[in-house]
Amino acid sequence: MCSVVPKPPTNDRGQATVEFALLLPLFVLLIVAIFDVTAIVRDQLLVDLLARDAARHASQSDSRDTARQRVAEVVVAAGRSDARWNIEFGEETLTVRISLTPRASMTATSLRWLGRSSGVIGTVTFATEYDIDEG
Hints:
The chain is an alpha+beta fold. The chain contains three helices and three strands, in the order H-H-E-E-H-E. It has a three-stranded antiparallel sheet, covered by helices on one side. The longest helix has 45 residues, at 15-59.
């Protein structure tokens, strides 16, 4: 005959709770990091699109003042008051550079606190359709 020896009782009640308590902060940190990176990527895509749109409108201008005004209109229409922009004129091209501070980004806030740059930058160069005058 074969006899079955019962397994001795163990006292591991609560083991899953302790493991969960140890891993929960890591999971929360991972989720926050995913949302943070998503926000930064969203703002990078926005600034690239904004710079391209501003450069396209500015390239259709016939004077530098009109080109600057068109870039300003595009930036204002985006609704981002933190946008900083610059336009440079070449022989037959113009370059628009726009920078933004990422919104609601804990990583960006942390990097700013550490003294590092945390902006997203978009730069686009377009050929001008007309000869742009100095005025």
